[in-house]
Q: What sequence folds into this?
């Protein structure tokens, strides 16, 4: 992901590159730029993250800003809030804590530089950085480091829709027609170099190094010359008996940039003309164009392959002529060029071979699997498009929509982790709650969990996810969540009808969208979607694309060592459904376990402690109890929540309403200071009141390491 600074543009993303001649003009400018200045910067294959300064005059600290319009990003993700923004297991969580530790330790020493950069009193300005900690997307580095690429400033923006509607991000006045989130701010290189030098000793304490932009240097003994590359023939296999061969230069003279188009494949799926696998299939002549692409879209597909090929081979010529203090530039993601007059206000990257070399997996990437044992696999076009994830927003067409259907009575952190993973892959995630007649779940005390409860809980869990919508499918005749999911992503008429059963304001899924069907790898859950291609979009000739559910199934989340350690010594363990069952793993999340603990919450405060692992912190547990109308004496119960929109006493959260609707406070605590519950309340007689949890955790880990199943 590009973070607050946005995705860096490829040459074909630039607004003025509309033809093949324009693309060649760009590379001529790039050649001139590096010949005269040799002043590009190495493009690190790391993780983008942006740091700003927040706080009042008395206390200043660094904070992360991922660039969204969520309050936590606008206010700043300080060290105290890292766990709120990056849940347990998130790849960025430990590195962000280390980097904030480095920056905050040095903040007083680097204050003069921060003031010079205009950051000290202006949180709309931020350091655009990239970090490497362990494995990166593709490139293997020998050290952990933070590279500070430059200084950016946000444009002012107000969210007009979605969960963040009405949220306002302060910043510069946005020029007309500009859609990017931020812009680079000119600054003196000496100031940034001074900042980097001061941060160095602090970074070493955390096992990191700090660099400013790593400059490239011109290799004088290598001539940058496009002649041979432009003369090389490029053959396009039109059909079994027809081919077109032209030089790359000739192709560029006629080609137009297809970045704003989508194309339809013969199997009915849609993809982007600048798709790496499509390009490689055309380049390698794996199949004729007539067998791959609908006739009307053949030209866009061919021109997309031409633009990809030219960007690759001409980029290689640029990169071969450069070196850097970090070694051969060809061994990195590429080079970044900055020149307002030559290229535009924002940086552009030349990646050469890396444009097809990053098909592998890693942090933030999707792994594309190939079955080498299949004798005749034919042409495989995986619509999981890595390069599409790196194209600037102006060139991204169509939407990827993940549908996660279920009863969710109740939802828990295992479900949430799945949704969070899909939120990183998709433009939208729809959590679809089925609402069949006479199909409720009941707690031990008789409390019924209905669809309205499930939605209210989901809204609480997903409040931080801007691209997630929670909706109830109000058709009492539809018992299966899968059936509801198929209806929502079926034929166009079915999609309209399904949308109407969610709410008048719910938009049907549009033609050309790509669908992900939510599933876990637990217990072969993904197998329930076998044959889904027959139904999505109306079938193989329909207007929607389906990602293979087996490739998108999410690994189940496991309970924390703290939970398992507490459960091991708790009397509640004996009646825990997953412990009593011989075919369930109690280390995994189960709705039955959560229902059991919810039912025990009024009589056993240890149940509340265990529920924190299912839901979040203590306050979130009380929110859930309040939604269910359960009164523990420490929360304010809501006495009735309807199972469908517009029925009974409403929480304002049912149906298909948006998350930005005003919500009543769900929790009021006794006493004036929110915080831990009174530990002097009654406990089980046979429970040690002073259990050392750190010891319990260590014992649990030791037993696990020795292969003892607990």
A:
């Amino acid at each position: 992901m590009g973070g607050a600074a946005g995705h860096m543009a490829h040459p074909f993303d630039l607004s003025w590159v509309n033809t093949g001649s324009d693309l060649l003009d760009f590379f001529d400018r790039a050649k001139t730029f590096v010949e005269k200045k040799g002043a590009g910067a190495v493009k690190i294959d790391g993780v983008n993250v942006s740091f700003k300064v927040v706080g009042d005059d008395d206390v200043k600290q660094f904070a992360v800003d991922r660039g969204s319009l969520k309050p936590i990003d606008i206010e700043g993700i300080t060290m105290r809030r890292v766990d709120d923004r990056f849940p347990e297991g998130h790849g960025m969580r430990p590195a962000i804590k280390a980097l904030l530790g480095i920056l905050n330790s040095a903040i007083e020493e680097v204050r003069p530089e921060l003031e010079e950069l205009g950051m000290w009193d202006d949180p709309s300005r931020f350091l655009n950085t990239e970090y490497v900690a362990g494995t990166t997307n593709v490139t293997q580095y020998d050290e952990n480091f933070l590279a500070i690429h430059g200084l950016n400033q946000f444009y002012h923006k107000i969210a007009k829709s979605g969960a963040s509607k009405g949220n306002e991000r302060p910043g510069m006045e946005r020029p007309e027609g500009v859609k990017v989130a931020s812009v680079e701010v000119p600054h003196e290189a000496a100031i940034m170099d001074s900042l980097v030098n001061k941060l160095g000793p602090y970074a070493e304490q955390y096992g990191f190094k700090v660099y400013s932009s790593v400059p490239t240097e011109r290799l004088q003994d290598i001539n940058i010359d496009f002649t041979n590359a432009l003369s090389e023939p490029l053959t396009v296999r039109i059909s079994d008996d027809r081919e077109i061969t032209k030089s790359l230069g000739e192709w560029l003279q006629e080609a137009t940039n297809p970045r704003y188009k989508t194309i339809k494949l013969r199997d009915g799926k849609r993809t982007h003309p600048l798709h790496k696998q499509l390009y490689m299939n055309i380049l390698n002549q794996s199949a004729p164009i007539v067998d791959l692409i609908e006739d009307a879209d053949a030209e866009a597909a061919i021109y997309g392959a031409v633009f990809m090929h030219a960007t690759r081979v001409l980029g290689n010529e640029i990169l071969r002529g450069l070196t850097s203090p970090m070694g051969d530039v060809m061994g990195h993601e590429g080079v970044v060029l900055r020149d307002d007059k030559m290229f535009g206000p924002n940086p552009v990257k030349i990646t050469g071979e890396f444009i097809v070399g990053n098909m592998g997996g890693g942090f933030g990437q999707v792994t594309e699997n190939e079955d080498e044992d299949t004798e005749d696999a034919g042409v495989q076009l995986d619509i999981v498009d890595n390069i599409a994830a790196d194209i600037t927003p102006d060139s991204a067409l169509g939407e990827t929509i993940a549908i996660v259907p279920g009863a969710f009575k109740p939802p828990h952190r295992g479900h949430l982790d799945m949704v969070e993973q899909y939120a990183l892959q998709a433009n939208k995630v729809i959590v679809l709650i089925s609402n069949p007649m006479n199909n409720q779940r009941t707690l031990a005390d008789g409390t019924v969990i209905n669809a309205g409860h499930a939605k209210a809980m989901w809204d609480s869990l997903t409040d931080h996810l801007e691209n997630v919508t929670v909706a109830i499918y109000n058709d009492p005749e539809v018992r299966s969540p899968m059936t509801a999911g198929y209806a929502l992503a079926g034929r166009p008429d079915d999609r309209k009808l399904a949308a109407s059963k969610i709410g008048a304001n719910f938009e049907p899924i549009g033609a050309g969208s790509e669908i992900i069907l939510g599933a876990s790898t637990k217990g072969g859950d993904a197998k329930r979607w076998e044959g889904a291609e027959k139904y999505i979009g109306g079938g193989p000739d329909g207007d929607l694309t389906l990602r293979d559910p087996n490739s998108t199934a999410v690994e189940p989340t496991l309970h924390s060592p703290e939970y398992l350690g507490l459960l091991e010594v708790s009397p509640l363990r004996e009646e825990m459904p997953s412990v009593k069952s011989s075919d369930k793993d109690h280390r995994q999340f189960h709705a039955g376990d959560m229902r059991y603990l919810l039912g025990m919450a009024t009589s056993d405060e240890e149940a509340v402690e265990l529920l924190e692992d299912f839901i979040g912190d203590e306050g979130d547990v009380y929110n859930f109890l309040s939604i269910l109308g359960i009164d523990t004496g420490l929360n304010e119960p809501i006495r009735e929540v309807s199972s469908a929109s517009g029925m009974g006493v409403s929480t304002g959260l049912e149906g298909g309403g948006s998350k930005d609707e005003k919500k009543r406070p769900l929790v009021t605590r006794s006493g004036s200071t929110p915080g831990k519950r009174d530990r002097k309340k009654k406990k089980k007689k046979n429970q040690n009141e002073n259990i050392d949890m750190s010891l319990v955790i260590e014992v649990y880990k030791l037993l696990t390491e020795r292969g003892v199943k607990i």
Observations:
- The chain has four domains: 45-213, 227-360, 394-552, 561-675+686-700.
- The longest helix spans residues 298-320.
